[in-house]
Design a protein that fits this description.
With 371 residues, this protein is α/β, with parallel strands linked by helices. It folds into 2 domains: 182 residues, Rossmann fold; 130 residues, Rossmann fold. The protein has 12 helices and 18 strands. A 7-stranded mixed beta sheet has the order 6-3-1-7-8-12-11, sandwiched between helices. A 6-stranded mixed beta sheet has the order 2-4-5-17-16-15. Strand 9, helix 6 and strand 10 form a beta-alpha-beta unit. Helix 2 packs parallel to helix 7 and helix 4 packs across helix 5.
Length: 371
């Protein structure tokens, strides 16, 4: 009887063990890759940050989080808008989250920040793929993650990087480079094909092709030719903000991060624009600590300006399209063309050419198509 009892107990325990192991394996299989887009509170480049966030979120196969180095809002450059992200590095560590599968690093105002280096190296040591967008590569170079590795960045800064970071094997004329656990991309529009390449790496070719089509990206390969761009792209602008035009950006709930980021980035690079963010629906605003905000398509909080402090010269509406239920991909497909077209209409073709080249955009779309 005693033997029979022990046998039954052992068999029951074994079955429970198998059931638990099976459940753990099932959970592991169904976990989405965790993608973290990081930001530096004092200043992070808007397309470098928002384009990967938008594309990886739209793929619907990642768990995507936006983290800042410190508590508080993040300033997006060059447009100076403010965003609240999901968590800081410190609060992320208290959430019980697993190590990210991929960490994306935009260009930031202080690439030598030690707190950023420390956190990135911890994630890399734990197996994360660390990805730089544009001059976010300086953060990786400063941290030592690129020592002895191949990498790329914004082509206008090629000579600067080669001189400052001689331990990195710099590669020119490519959209992105993968070397072991590190990936780096060139600037600025390369954030889009590089993000699609991440979709392919983690979710497969079919999903990558689907998302690329939704965002109007016909080719997300690493092939790149910078020889068509001039050495100098300086145009007349105003360092004195009081001399600039005021642009009111009217936003609806669920605004596309991708469309808004490229528009703000391109308009800001004219050095002729100040921005005010307004809500298309002023009756149902949300607020945090007395500050009104609009939530983007995938959860970022964009803080609005007080509309009493500006007299806009131009109003760009990001509300009508979305409120009329136009699909997000239609907004994304036309956003870059529309931004360049607006610049040409209001400032002239020279400004449109200049900005398109600065963001390395004419490789994706012949400039004449935007006019």
């Amino acid at each position: 009887m005693k033997f029979r009892f022990c046998f039954i107990a052992s068999f029951t325990f074994y079955c429970l063990f198998l059931t638990n192991a099976s459940a753990q394996q099932s959970t592991k299989k169904t976990l989405k890759p965790l993608a973290v887009i990081v930001a530096q509170n004092g200043g992070s480049e808007i397309t470098d940050f928002m384009v990967p966030y938008s594309i990886l979120s739209a793929a619907k196969g990642f768990e995507v989080m936006a983290l800042s180095a410190e508590e508080g809002t993040v300033t997006m450059l060059p447009s100076e808008i403010q965003v609240e992200v999901d968590a800081s590095f410190a609060s992320f560590e208290t959430m019980g989250k697993r190590t990210p599968d991929v960490v994306v690093v935009p260009a930031v105002i202080d690439p030598a920040a030690k707190d950023l280096h420390k956190w990135l190296k911890q994630q890399a040591d734990n197996g994360a793929l660390v990805v730089s967008i544009c001059e976010g590569v300086q953060v990786l170079a400063e941290s030592g993650l690129l020592n002895g590795k191949q990498a790329t960045g914004y082509f206008f800064a090629d000579e600067f990087r080669k001189n400052k970071y001689p331990t990195v094997n710099w590669v020119s004329n490519t959209r992105y480079v993968v070397d072991g656990s590190v990936m780096s991309s060139s600037g600025i529009s390369a954030s889009a094909p590089a993000s699609i390449a991440l979709v392919e790496r983690f979710l497969g070719v079919d999903k990558a092709l689907q998302v690329a089509k939704e965002f109007g990206i016909s080719d997300y390969s690493a092939i790149h030719d910078v020889s068509i761009y001039p050495d100098s792209l300086e145009i007349e602008g105003h360092d004195d903000e009081s001399l600039r035009d005021n642009y009111a950006m009217v936003l609806a709930e669920g605004v596309s991060e991708y469309a808004l980021a490229f528009s703000l980035d391109m308009l800001a690079r004219t050095r002729q624009a100040n921005f005010t963010l307004l809500a298309s629906d002023k009756e149902n605003l949300q607020s945090i600590n007395g500050r009104d905000f609009v939530t983007t398509a995938h959860g970022l909080k964009l803080f609005l300006n007080d509309d009493s402090v500006t007299d806009p010269n131009w109003i760009f509406n990001f509300g009508d399209n979305l409120s009329n239920k136009v699909k997000a991909n239609e907004v994304n497909l036309n956003s870059n063309k529309t931004a360049i077209g607006r610049i040409v209409k209001h400032l002239g073709k020279a400004y449109g050419d200049n900005v398109a080249k600065k963001v390395v955009y004419s490789l994706e779309l012949q400039l004449d198509e935007a006019y």
